[in-house]
Amino acid sequence: MSAIQIVPHYNPSSYENVFNIPAPTARNIFTAIFICLNTSIVFIGGRLIKRQAQRKLLKVIRISCVFSQGLVTKHNNGTLDPVPEWPAAQLAFSARDAALVNGGVSGIWQTVNANTSAFAPSESDVLGRWICDEREPSLMTPADWANMSTLEAFNRKTGYHFSESSGYAGAILNNGRGPWTSIFVYSADQFDNSTSLKLWDMKATMIRDLGSVAKNATNFQCRLNITDPTWQPTRMPAKKSLDAWDQVIVGSFAEIEPEEYGTALATNLNMMSLIAGSGNSKTWNSTEAISRAAPAAYGCLYGVTVIYKQVFAIALVLILLVFIMGVVDLYDIARNKWDKRHKRVEAIPVELLNWQLAMVQKMIKNEGLTERQMNELEFYWDQTTEDYACRPRDKKGTSHTYEAVENPIGPSTASNSKSNITISTNEVFNEKASR
Question: Beta strands of 9-158 (E only): which ranges?
Answer without folding.
Answer: 58-66, 69-72, 108-109, 111-113, 126-140
